[in-house]
Design goal:
By secondary structure, the chain is α+β, with helices and mostly antiparallel strands. It folds into two domains: 4-82, no CATH class; 120-328, Beta Polymerase, domain 2 (2-Layer Sandwich), CATH 3.30.460. It has helices at residues 103-110, 120-129, 136-159, 167-176, 199-205, 283-291, 322-325; strands at residues 4-11, 25-34, 37-42, 45-47, 51-54, 79-83, 87-92, 95-100, 114-115, 164-165, 185-191, 210-216, 219-226, 232-240, 245-250, 256-262, 267-272, 275-280, 311-316, 326-328. The strands form five sheets. Strands 10, 11, 12, 13, 14, 15, 16, 19 and 20 form a nine-stranded mixed β-sheet that branches. A four-stranded antiparallel β-sheet has the order 4-5-6-9, covered by helices on one side. The protein has a three-stranded antiparallel β-sheet with strand order 1-2-3, with no helix packed on it. A hairpin with a 2-residue loop joins strand 7 (87-92) and strand 8. The longest helix has 24 residues, at 136-159. It starts with a strand and ends with a strand.
Amino acid sequence: MGFQWQKYEGKDPRLEGMEDLSGTQIPLHYIFKMAAHAIHLVVFYERSGNYLWHGPLRLKKNMDRKFAPFRKLQFGRYAGAFNRAELTQITIDGLKVQIPKDPSQFLKEMAHSRFLECRFKEARAFFQLYPDDISPEGIEFRKKAKALLHLAAFTLDNLGVSFWLSSGTCLGWYRQCNIIPYSKDVDIGIFIKDYKSDIIPAFQNAGLPLKHKFGKVEDSLELSFLGSDDVKLDVFFFYEEDDYMWNGGTQVKSGKKFKYLFPKFTHCWTEFAEMKVRVPCETLEYLEANYGKGWDVPVKIWDWKSSPPNVQPNGMWPVDEWDDVIQIY
């Protein structure tokens, strides 16, 4: 029909780990060009977390870099993840086309769709140095932690509360593409501006009783829930300052307060434990703040009050507030 066109391929991340198929190339983008006009066709794939994914647009060395205004393409520089959209058929200029039933929701997702793939190559190298825990206890913990994370995500999604993988759970994703078997809990972060008073009852209704509540909404709030299999869910609330972000910590016996400082970060999607979940886009800086430059070496003995390089004293809770800011169940 007179179009010039280019096809852009990339690795299929769904086949990662399958030795015979790993590295298989799949079509990610096509650009069709006629005169001064271009059609950008983006290929979406279904991923195991029941969401849609598209790959980044990467130009190979021998490709014409002037073929299209690549920098202006909305689906270009980064891979993206979207909820599965319900489609509806409409007619535009006599053409029958499909669009998302809720276009505004799709456009809203576009602005925050950036996707980070798990670092499979680095994870394999990590396990060559530090063999994975495949004991029955390690496998069982990962199974329980995965179920707890899915339940937490379902509960928070129903409330419309955004969260991301934090602390040891984020470290496990970035370092070894899996849950750390000796971590014994699941860690997530929530911005305090997204806090809702019905978070606690929603978790309790989901079968996760409150284990402890430290701090208050205005200062150092932290919640911990107990899963049905004694795996703990720690919810850290983050506060934003002009040039950094932080979450708080409380020592029960002394009333001492602690503050964990993080460089400012944004959110990306990833796939973890067979679900679409958020992580800090600036993951390395986030983990180095929390664990130092040696984050890639396993540490099984960890003191939350002194081991993190980003921890600092933050005063004391007044004794007359202890009943409110130090609650253990």
